[in-house]
Amino acid sequence: MPGEEERHGRLWTWLDQRVGLAEIEYLARKKEIPIHRHTAWYYLGGMTLFLFLAQIGTGILLLFYYRPSAEEAFESIQFLMAEVEFGWLIRSIHSWAANLMVFTLFLHLGSVLLLKAYRPPREVTWVSGVLLMGLAMGFGFTGYLLPWNELAYFATKVGSEITGAVPVAGGFLRRLLRGGDEVTGATLTRFYGIHVAVLPAITGMVLGLHLYLVQRHGMSVPLAVERSGEPRRMMRFMPNFLLRDLVGWLSALAILAALAAFLPAELGRKADPFLPAPIGIKPEWYFMFMFQTLKYLPAHILGIEGEVVGILGFGLGGLFLLLVPFLDRRAARGERSLLFTWIGLGIIVYMIVLTYLGYTASATK
User: Which residues, in sequence order, are CB contacts of 63 under 8 Å at separation 6+?
Assistant: First the structure.
């Protein structure tokens, strides 16, 4: 049998003695992936992680040119796109990676919900996943303002105004977000700090916990497969599953490059607070179902402002999603749980229909 130094080389042996590479190799080789008709959903987590890493890489490159002030933000991005070699490509990939990451995150969360992969002992894994979803939307909200263009300015004004409808703490939260009573350069600086420092720090901790728990508990087998009593087939993570993951990542990279090349991110006109808001202004697509819901609500419901009722409803909806593993007791006992399956399907259909209506309904209604 060859020794460790013969098998891996002197560099590996040197690093192994200092950081324990052999233990990491053992964990990777030990990990196995269940094979069944739902195995394809397992790739969404790695795909989301890859798109997040793409954003980190492009985001760092954008930092070299971006200037976070109302006077210079728009011009710095204009310079980046027009003068810096491949600057437009880096910004476009950053923008498309954000959208695709939120999309794959929605799919990942939806598949975990419907396959009931939140069952014990994976409750905390689910909670950390829902928190990551919230953080991703926070990245989208804060990043949207940074180009300081007309659409971003007025969309942020509407979005932060909605925050002000939160009962009791609404006024405080709106001023906290804006850095004052109005959307100004102080808001831009604040959003920049949250986008490049606060959110990455929190995301790093929650993501670290999430990945650790995935490694610790392994992949969940769907309840229906578990109850069928069929013999388990397994695939080794290293190298079988990892190589398939890499193929998916390369495909995602090709899609990202194609979208960035043929549909590059636009900059529009510089924000001017003294101009009226453009007609039919809309938020990013992943906020659309909430935006459209608030538009449909009447001015008052049982004596309470419709917007306040909507905000409370979304808050309770988010709390319910977070607590699903603790509420779905039948699934926790390994029994069929159709109620939560139908609730999950209802949430998905509601989001799709309201998003569709948001893009197709008249802009003046």
Answer: 196
Task: Say whether pLDDT at 162 is over 60.
Answer: yes
Position 288 scores a pLDDT of 93
Is 354 within 8 Å of 288 (Cβ atoms)? yes
Beta bridge partners of 304: 301
pLDDT (average), residues 85-99: 96
86: left (phi over 0), alpha (psi -120 to 50) or beta: left
Query: What is the 3 state secondary structure string of the chain?
Result: CCCHHHHHCHHHHHHHHHHCHHHHHHHHHHCEEEECCCHHHHHHHHHHHHHHHHHHHHHHHHHCCCCCCCCCHHHHHHHHHHCCCCHHHHHHHHHHHHHHHHHHHHHHHHHHHHCCCCCCCCHHHHHHHHHHHHHHHHHHHHHHHCCCEHHHHHHHHHHHHHHCCCCCCHHHHHHHHHCCCCCCHHHHHHHHHHHHHHHHHHHHHHHHHHHHHHHHHCCCCCHHHHHHCCCCEEEEHHHHHHHHHHHHHHHHHHHHHHHHHHCCCCCCCECCCCCCCCCCCCCCHHHHHHHHHHHHCCCEECCEEHHHHHHHHHHHHHHHHHHHHHHCHHHHCCCCCHHHHHHHHHHHHHHHHHHHHHHHCCCCC
Instruction: For residue 211, give the nearest of 17, 39, 52, 18 by alpha carbon.
Output: 52
Per-residue model confidence as pLDDT tens digits over 11-21: 888 888 888 88
